[in-house]
Design a protein that fits this description.
By secondary structure, the chain is α+β, with helices and mostly antiparallel strands. 27% of the residues lie in helices and 50% in strands. It starts with 5 loop residues before the first helix and ends with a strand. It holds the Pfam family LEA_2.
Length: 210
């Protein structure tokens, strides 16, 4: 029985390795296709969840109450001017309908008289948890020096009714795969009776957008 030469053994080894190469390549292709399929399936699942269950929703602002906490009015005959102090307490609820937290930035609640800003109060930045609500109690005080220059003031006082408007804007973001910016507004048109010192008419408006 002849003993195989070293060259013959080497040739057989190379042939065996060559026979296994197609199998290795086939397995690699199958593994790569499997990984790609899993990645695509996960991406599709996240997309569906992002468009349905986790779809970004606008925060909802509702006005719980608006009350006149202070109204002082008098004429300064010597200086021919009106002395007017007004404070309005407003309570608003901000509801986050999302399944993730809503972070909102620093903002300012405004008190307006015929379009002019006559009072303001800061609304500090914060966070509202998933599907949670936050109550904000704000006091808006009229700054007399801002309203006295308005030419409509004297005629409104003579009529006995002072028209004011509260305005609050809350802007922030929710993170669902990526940050989504959301903004919500509320404003209330008020008519204040100077003689009875109360709010005789109130109409609130709401607006939200992504």
């Amino acid at each position: 029985m002849e003993v195989e030469s070293s060259k013959q053994k080497e040739n057989k080894t190379m042939m065996a390795q060559h026979d296994h190469n197609p199998d290795k390549k086939r397995r690699r292709k199958i593994i790569c296709l499997g990984v790609i399929s899993v990645i695509l399936a996960l991406a599709l699942i996240f997309l569906i969840l992002g468009l349905t269950v986790f779809k970004a929703k606008r925060p909802v602002i509702t006005v719980n109450s608006v009350a006149l906490s202070d109204l002082d009015f008098s004429f300064d005959v010597a200086r021919l001017r009106v002395l007017l102090n007004v404070s309005v307490d407003t309570s608003i609820a901000v509801k986050n309908p999302n399944r993730v937290g809503f972070k909102y930035k620093n903002s300012t609640a405004l008190l307006k008289y015929r379009g002019d800003v006559v009072g303001e109060v800061p609304v500090p930045a914060g966070k509202i948890g998933a599907r949670d609500s936050m109550i904000m109690n704000l006091t808006l005080t009229l700054m007399a020096d801002r309203v006295l220059s308005n030419s409509n003031l004297y005629s409104d006082i003579r009529s006995g009714t002072l028209p004011l408007q509260t305005y609050t804007r809350i802007a922030g973001k929710v993170r669902i795969l990526f940050n989504i910016r959301v903004v919500s507004y509320t404003s209330c048109d008020l008519e204040i009776s100077i003689s009875s010192r109360n709010i005789t008419k109130q109409q609130c408006h709401y607006k939200t957008k992504l």
